[in-house]
């Protein structure tokens, strides 16, 4: 999950946990210990996560699926009743729409979704809920593109510091 706000903490985590390893998409353009691509498996203990590339918010967005626990971690590709913005850092609304529908919303309806950001106090959603209730993704692809191209969001306050740090494995 290549995110300007969340991944920047990697540098601090490395200090606190010296054995920690960072993971990024091969498409991120950033520095990390390990790079993943679509279909890779990340194994830890008796668990594993399937990597699904979900570009559109950024080229390097990935989602992680636990089939055993029926859950997906979507970063900013899919948010609760929203999705990641597409107006900077390689964003593309058409690519995001296809990524979310092909790689995330194609999972079984009972899968639980954990997102990278939540602004409303809701901690999780489900594939079924997002298919039915997401005001952007319940639209056609062309309608989605129009919505995303007309959001006119403010430029993120810390983005000019966070992006270079992200590309350098969280080191400012």
From TrEMBL:
GO MF entry, a single one: sulfur dioxygenase activity
Any one cellular-component term (Gene Ontology): mitochondrion
Domain Metallo-beta-lactamase: 31-117
Position of the signal peptide: none
Gene Ontology BP term (one): hydrogen sulfide metabolic process
One Pfam family linked to the record: Lactamase_B
Annotated protein name in UniProt: Metallo-beta-lactamase domain-containing protein
């Amino acid at each position: 999950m290549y995110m300007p706000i969340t991944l920047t903490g990697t540098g601090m985590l490395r200090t606190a946990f010296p054995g920690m390893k960072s993971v990024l998409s091969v498409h991120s353009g950033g520095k990390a210990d390990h790079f993943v691509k679509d279909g890779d498996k990340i194994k830890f203990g008796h668990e594993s996560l399937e990597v699904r590339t979900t570009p559109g918010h950024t080229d390097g967005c990935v989602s992680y699926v636990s089939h055993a626990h029926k859950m997906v971690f979507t970063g900013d590709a899919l948010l609760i009743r929203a999705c990641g913005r597409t107006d900077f850092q390689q964003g593309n609304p058409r690519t995001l729409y296809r990524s979310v529908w092909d790689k995330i919303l194609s999972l079984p309806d009972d899968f639980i979704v954990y997102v990278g950001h939540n602004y409303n106090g809701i901690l999780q959603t489900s594939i079924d809920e997002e298919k039915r209730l997401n005001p952007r993704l319940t639209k056609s692809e062309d309608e989605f593109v129009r919505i995303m191209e007309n959001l006119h969001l403010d430029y993120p306050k810390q983005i000019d510091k966070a992006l270079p740090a992200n590309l350098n494995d969280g080191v400012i």
